[in-house]
Here is the input.
Amino acid sequence: MGWLDAWKGFGITFTTMFRRTFTQGYPQKGREKVTQARFHGRHQLNRWPDGLEKCVGCELCAWACPADAIYVEAGANTDEERYSPGERYGMVYEINYLRCIFCGMCIEACPTRALTMTNEFKLADRSRERLIYTKEELLAPLVEGMEAPPHPRRLGDDERDYFLGLPDSGTDSRVPTRSRSQARRKGDRA
Ligand code: SF4
Ligand code: SF4
Here is the structure.
């Protein structure tokens, strides 16, 4: 190694100091932290468009979790007190963020897409108890057109009608399946 090589090394360090960084400091004053859309953050329990809960209390997420971070207890729906459109709903639902490693196995296991992960990463807290999130904390907020359960299914006359009437996309449409596919074909030709 020649005596100039060490100075070449210092030169690289010096020029790198003025390059635009790829990473973003946190917290950075006046600039919200940007995450990728695929980032695994806090979980969310989703709802159907009428506000009923998607979770059916099947516990598949809890079984799939390698860190044993999820606790689920199912309850039975009745026509008088209905929380989800199916037979059962997640009566107790907890995620322990002291254990969770944000691997996403639970959301892969969920058969109804009730459980997904948001981009929310600010989970630090001052007590261990606060890091056990309950169902109320994990449930998606009610948006326009949704009603807080319990209530009957609003998207059809019975369970079958409820699911068949659900839109292909985010647009709420009660158009029969055949008409929808015809409309799609017309759209393809346009
Ligand atoms: S993200 Fe992984 S560790 Fe966290 S609750 Fe889901 S399965 Fe368990
Ligand atoms: S979140 Fe999904 S996998 Fe977990 S209990 Fe509810 S429906 Fe089952």
User: Anything to note?
Assistant: The pocket of iron/sulfur cluster (ligand 1) is lined by residues 64-65, 67, 69-70, 95, 100-106 (CB under 6 Å). Residues 172-190 have pLDDT under 50 and may be disordered. Helices lie at 3-16, 60-64, 105-109, 135-138, 159-164, 177-189. The CA atoms of residues 35 and 161 lie 39 Å apart.
